[in-house]
Amino acid sequence: MARPRWSIRKSVLTLACLYMSALGFLHTFIQIQNQRETIATDELVAKSIPLEGVRGNETVPLVVSLQLGRPQLTSHIPIVPPAVRASTRRSNHSRTQSSEQAKTTIVNETQEYIKQTVTLTKRLLAMTSPAKTKSTAKTFIKHGCPSVQHGSFHKIRSSLITVAIYSAFYDDRFGSTAFIRFITLATRIAPNMTRDLRCSFQTGNSTTIREMEKYELCENHGKTLGGFILSCKVPTNYTPCNVTVVPSSLARKGVVIPVQYPGHTKQYEFAICVPPLYGEIKPERLVEFIELNQILGASKFHFYVYRKNESIVPNFMKVLNYYAQQGKVTFDNWDLSLNVKHLGGIWYYGQSLAINDCHYRHMGHAEYLTFHDIDEYIIPQKTMTWRSMVEKYWVNETSGFRIKSVFVPPPKLPQPFNAKLMTLELISRTRIQSAVRTKVIIKPEWVFEAGIHHVSRHIGKHASLDAPEDMALLYHYRNCIQNYGMNCANMQQDMTVLKYSQELKARFNNTMCHLHLIRFCNKL
Fold first, then answer.
1. What's the gap between Cα 437 and its chain centre?
2. Range scoring the smallest mean pLDDT among 229-233, 405-409, 461-465
3. Which of 221, 151, 230 is nearest to 183 (CA)?
4. Is the Cβ–Cβ distance between 455 and 440 less than 8 Å?
5. Reported confidence tier of residue 79, pLDDT bands at 50, 70, 90
6. Which of 188, 227, 452, 440 is nearest to 353 (CA)?
7. Is the Cβ–Cβ distance between 212 and 197 less than 8 Å?
8. Do 362 and 271 form a contact (C-beta atoms < 8 A)?
């Protein structure tokens, strides 16, 4: 009986076609991945996938490495499908098999190989795609650039002016042109600030010099020193790790400023920026602030601590460090470097400057961002959490909501008021809601400048809205100030915060006991 050589040859040719199709399928997937937005890198990504190749009758281990986000074989040995190897090993036995059996076996093994190839491709794509990870780092830098852990003021002196740049951010929200935004402290009466400063970009072996544009922050309140956003256009197709700010006078050296990049993955739904802390702050107030806001929905807090403030007690820093170790809190030492006489030459310790630094550093990392002090709480009126609040009230094109405030003053007693949980014990507030002392909750990507009490400048067609009365109120736990139409004598009871009473007490007591800040914890 004649051996079915013709059918085996036909099967091998069919197998070869399927093999080439599989390789084409893999190549197409990799090309698609290369066209996707990838994280730029200058370093080898140390990841590998073991495979098997064959050299003659020998099985050889191969490694697929990922370099610059693209899969490459580190060996030039071709990968031979299992079915081909099997057909080679079976060549002496296949003579006793029927043509149909041999064909069926080869097709089945080839289909399994294609399935494994698709699985491998998915693994490659997963490894080259940015993953959603949680980090306690203060900022998140473009992949390949060194991480900036803390902000700090960089003094730049020229023949005309002295400025201090706190941080620099990459901003590509304006179409094809990208900018570096410098959060800057400077004298407001310096007319030649931008004419006297330049950005120097080192692009390969050449240097590109760009002029600066000046934008003054809205709420400097006429003080001598104020906050600015200085901007330089970035050279096309260039993503710098740092930029050198140089005076026009060649006799003075420039200052290298690290560049921070927006995130690609939202790590926090709600984050809170707390402007510079000063004055006497008790640790129990800080614990109450963080725990209640976590109940409301915040998962990240960023503080600015004015280190020259000698009244900040050690236990306050103990609380900050406790939450920092959990990844919930980050903080910067706010050391104003210019000569601010008794800080009377700047508004509230540079509050507006800190707010905009926090705004830009959380861009791409937080879905929503709020700015308020530790004696202020944004309390939903008809819902329990901020998430349910924004789901109910937020509309398209809204960059933020301005939330009206009420004063919740302590009682007038001969002795200082020392409530363990201030928010649960004070239930009398002003009846009038202030439309001036508002605070905001924003979408960071849709705002150019965040103000203290409002959104100062939006991006594109976005706009901020006044929050309806049944959406939320800002409860300000301090003595009432009778201005801007406020009537401190007209008070009413408000027990809205008491809906969080049980959970807040449990969380507060657990934290205070853990930190050994209260006695008799076993009796709580």
1. 27
2. 461-465
3. 230
4. yes
5. very low
6. 227
7. yes
8. yes
CA–CA separation, 410 and 172 (whole Å)? 47
Maximum C-alpha span of the chain: 116
Phi-psi category of residue 180: left, alpha or beta, with phi > 0 → left and psi -120 to 50 → alpha: beta
Specify the residue for token string 């109120």: 473
Place of tokens 């027990």: 495
Query: Residues 6 or more apart from 412 whose CB is under 8 A from it?
Result: none
Does the pLDDT of residue 341 top 80, yes or no?
Answer: no
Which pTM value belongs to this model? Answer: 0.71
pLDDT tens sequence across 258-314: 999 998 889 999 999 999 887 778 899 999 999 999 999 999 999 998 765 555 677
Q: Are 349 and 336 in contact (CB under 8 A)?
A: yes
Alpha-carbon gap, residue 298 to 79, rounded angstroms: 51
Neighbours of 425 (CB within 10 A): 12
Measured CA to CA, the distance from residue 431 to residue 435 in angstroms comes to 13
- pLDDT score recorded for residue 39: 33
Strand spans (E) along 334-427: 366-371, 376-380, 398-407
Task: Name the residue type at position 272.
Answer: I
Q: With H, G, I as helix, E, B as strand and everything else as coil, classify residue 196.
A: coil
Query: Bridge-partner residues for 174, per DSSP?
Result: 177
| DSSP single-letter state for residue 319 | H
d(CA 445, CA 79): 46
For 496-520, the pLDDT digits (tens) are 999 999 999 999 999 999 999 887 6
| pLDDT of res. 72 | 33
Closest residue by Cα to residue 406 from 475, 346, 326: 475
d(C-alpha 23, C-alpha 13), whole Å: 15
User: Cβ distance 297 to 385 under 8 Å?
Assistant: yes
Confidence of residue 20 (pLDDT cuts 50, 70, 90): confident
The residue-averaged pLDDT of 147-159 equals: 72
Residue type, position 156, single letter: I
How many of the other CB atoms lie within 10 Å of CB of 520? Answer: 7
Residues 6+ apart with CB under 8 A from 255: 154, 155, 156, 165, 244, 245, 246
